[in-house]
Each structure stands twice: as structure tokens, then as C-alpha cells.
Amino acid sequence: MMKKLLLRLPLLAFILTCNLFAQLTENFDNGNFGPGYNTGTINYDSGTWVVDEVINDLANSRSGASARLDDDTSGASLTTPVINSGVGEISFWYRELNSGGGTIEIQKSIDGVNYTTIATQAFAGTTYAQFTYTVNDASTGLTIRILSDDNAGHLIIDDFSTTAYSPSGSQPPQITNITQTPTNGNITSGDAVSVSADVTDSDGIASVVLSWGTTSGSLPNTITMSLDSGNTYTTNTDIPAQADGTTIYYEIEAMDNAVEISTSSEQNYSVFDPISLIISEVADPGNDASARFLEVYNNGSSTVDFNSITVYLERYANGGTNPQSFQLIGSLDAGEYYVIANNGSNFNIAFGFNPDAVSGIISGNGDDVYALYVNGDESSGSLLDVYGEIGIDGTGEAWEYVDSRAVRNSLSYSPSSTWIASQWDIFSADVSDMTPGRGEPTVYTYNNAWSPANPVGNATASDEVLVQNGQVTLSSDLEVFHLEVEAAGELIIEGIIKING
Asked: What is the 3-state secondary structure (H, E, C) of 50-81?
């Protein structure tokens, strides 16, 4: 079965005329699509549309179906039937599939061949936003084209409509190309947000004001926007930084010198502090391959709930690029570890406790790559952190860990989508050398004096105590992972010592 309709004749040959005397309305629910991305003509309820690299998208519509334009494709577009009674205002809803971003070009033509860009609009993330624009063109033979030309993100269009041309005197300002900095999907609780927009009017612009708030339809806060360059107006002050999880709603109102007022559709963005998970230990014990494990550490400030944030661990074997996947389950508190073992029973025998999860993908024999992905797997999510180099066999590489343990030498590192050699220590190691679920211990050693300090009041439950030489008394309670007294040492215990290892 053909995956695409391979139709790339001149656009005019495909545009079938519809005598539209009122408005055109299309919800994209009933198109005669073939499989995959289509190029050619599609019969919708409103008439025959011309499509270039467009797929019928049921999963991401506002309701019913929507039209998704392919990413990284020159000329990906969606074009209306011919409109013979002029066009007043056009309106449609838009979003992107995952991420990548881009710019929508709204174009018009009176011959179906030569198109003029009349407005642009930056992608607004994965939440639907409405675009409106007053074309006010009385020409016959009009077509409107939505172009996503070689953009990094997939553009999704739904619920398109036009109104009929209505001649009048003074026209209100046109507000187009509303842009946020930072862009939607990249705004954290530490970011204030500036907004710009192109505002045009033949009568001249008297004022441009942005109104914003945290509830849709209720926008009590206002910021004046001033002309920056060309036709672009920018907020004089930023929308202040907001708490993680907040959604900000805003709209722009422009008034011309003839006191005609127009208001943009309501825009929104969400504040999201990205999770901070790092791979902290990769283990291939030299004396027990069945005790292999990988450790993930949450060095962020909040709990990560894997039911609401999708995180995958992937293993790329032998220089391959098609990984095996494991989706993390449960949750991970800030400052805690998540241990994934190859075999639960063998791990328990080796280390004395159960891992947080078990997966057969933890079978790296020293030359395999491990990677963490957030908001999906390797095909739909974003690479968060990685051990090794994807597509490269680790044999002989700096990150090879055969019969060894690779340990992040600081737990404060930010996640990195590339492997950074300076962040890792790699040692030949057996089971007894591994530290799953507890990080790297401090060893408090007594050799006629404590080094680096007396463990009482300093050691944690993950640390170790070694008495090498001389007599020493521990008079207070102490909890450590491991305690060892060598032949030349003597330890007097007057309190309670709890040993976790």
C-alpha cells in the first residue's frame, strides 16, 4: 500500500473552486486521507483542500480529527478551497506535536500559484492556542495557505474558519506574530517572560497593552508595550517569574489613532521546572555479572512522580542505535536513589536488600551505553542524561566499564545529554566494592587519631568506620554502613552502634 499520495503538480491544477458566499468552516474530521503523510487534494466537508505533507491526526485534535503538517519538510502546507466572495477574518487553532518549535506563515493568493505572506505566528508549544487575523480582502479566487516550511516541530491545525468580506471605513489594528521569550516549553520558575508582537494599522497606532493573569478570562495585570523596531512592539517590563506548575494567560489589545480597537486571542504558557535526574553509578561486578545494576539519583528539589512524568532508561548495545527500553515506575524523592537491577534475587544475595526495579536491559557488559529520556522514550522524549556515547561501542573508550564500576564523582552535576569524562571515576570492582542506593561513603579512619574527623556527629548512615591502629572509644550512638576493626586497632563501644551494611 502506498504510504503517500505522490502528487506534486502545480497547485493551481488541484484547487477546485467553491462559490462561498458566507463563511468557510472546517473541523478536519471527515477528510479522505490515504495512509501516512499525504500530498495532493483532500475532500473535506467544506470543499477540496490542497495538502502538502499532511496527515490525519486523531490523537491530538481538539475533537474528532485534526491536520498535522510534517516537520523538517520544505513546503509542508494546508490550503483552503477557492473563496470567491472575499475574506474578512480567518481563525484557526494550532499547537505542535512534541517540541522543536517553528514559525507558521499565513499566506494568500488570487491565482493559486503566487502566494504572499500576510502574517506569521511562532509555535506556542503543545497546548492549543487560537490564531485570528483580519484579511479583509474582496478579491475573487482567493485561497488561504497555512505554511510550515522546514520547521523543526510538527504543526497541528484544527477548527479553521473564515468570515465573509465586510467593507467598512477605518479598520482596527492587526496583531500578528506574538512571540514569547523564553518560548513555551522552556519557561522555569526562575524566568520572567517578555512578549512581543507585530501591530500594524494604516491610521497609526495609539497604544498597545498586554493584560495577563493566572486564570483564563481574568487578566487583571497590565503591561504597556512600546515600539521596538519596524512594526514590533515589546513589553516594557516582563511578566514576573511564577511558581512551578503555574499557567499564565495573556492577551494584547491595540488601539489606532481612529480609536479602533482590536484584541488578540488569549495566549498562554506554563511554568515547568525540569526534573534533575542523573545516572550516578553503573555497575558490572567482576566477580558476579548477575549482580549488575544501574543507579539513578534525584538531585533536584522535589519528588519526581513517574506516574505523571514519563522517564525511560534505555540501553544501546555494542555501538547500536536501536535501544532496549525500561519505563521507571513509582516515585523518587529529592536526595534519594533509584536502583535498577538485572536480577532481583541475585541482587539481594549480593547486596542484602531489594532493588527499586528489575529489568533485563541492565545487562551492559562494559561497552554499552545507558541513557535517560524524559517525556517519552528515545523516539518521542528528550535525552536527559547519558553514560557513554550513543552509536559507539565502548570497548577501548574512556567510558568502558567492563568488570568495573563507574561512579559520578559529584552528585551535584546537572543532567547532561553528552558524556563528560571529568564527571566520572571508573574502577575495577567486585560486588564488595559497589555502593548501590547510598552514594559514595566517607571512610572515617582511626590511626591513633581520627581522619578526616571523629565519626560521632559527622558520619551518615552511608559512611564507614575503620579502626586501623590504637585504642579508641565511641561513647555516643552512631549509625554507619560498615564498621571494621583491624588487628592493630581496638574499639571500645559505650553507646549504640547501628550497622546498615
From this structure: EEEEEEEECCCCCCCCEEEECCCCCCEEEECC
Dihedral sign for Cα atoms in the order 178, 183, 185, 189: negative
Segment 30-57 shows an average pLDDT of: 95
Dist CA 459 CA 443 (whole Å): 9
Residue reference for cell 549509625: 479
DSSP string, 6-65: B--S-GGGG--EE--SS--EE---S----SSSEEEEEEETTEEEEEEEEEEESTTSSSS-
Residue 254 to residue 432: CA distance in whole angstroms: 70
Distance between CA atoms of residues 180 and 271, nearest Å: 13
Residue whose grid cell is 477540496: 48
Instruction: State how far the Cα of 341 lies from the Cα of 352, in Å rounded to an integer.
Output: 13
> Per residue in 392-446, pLDDT tens?
999 999 999 999 999 999 999 999 999 999 999 999 999 988 999 987 778 889 9
Please enumerate in sequence order all residues whose Cβ is within 8 A of that of 467, keeping only pairs 6 or more positions apart, or say none. Answer: 445, 446, 484, 485, 486, 489, 490, 491
Residue 269, CA atoms < 13 Å, CB-side half-sphere: 31
Per-residue pLDDT tens digits for 321-371: 999 999 999 999 999 999 999 999 999 999 999 999 999 999 999 999 999
Domains in the chain, start-ordered, CATH in brackets?
Answer: 1-167 (2.60.120.260), 171-273 (2.60.40.10), 277-433 (2.60.40.1260), 443-499 (no CATH)
What letter represents residue 293's amino acid? Answer: F
Average pLDDT over residues 389-393: 97
User: Mean pLDDT across the stretch 148-164?
Assistant: 94
Question: What is the chain's length?
Answer: 501
Predicted model pTM: 0.52
Of the listed ranges 164-168, 311-315, 355-359, 420-424, the one predicted with least confidence: 164-168
Res. 4 pLDDT band, cuts 50 70 90: very low
Residue with cell 555516643: 476
Cα–Cα–Cα angle for 220, 221, 224, nearest 5°?
Answer: 135
Kindly tell me the burial class for residue 379, based on how many C-beta atoms sit within 10 Å of its own C-beta (0-12, 13-18, 19 or more). exposed
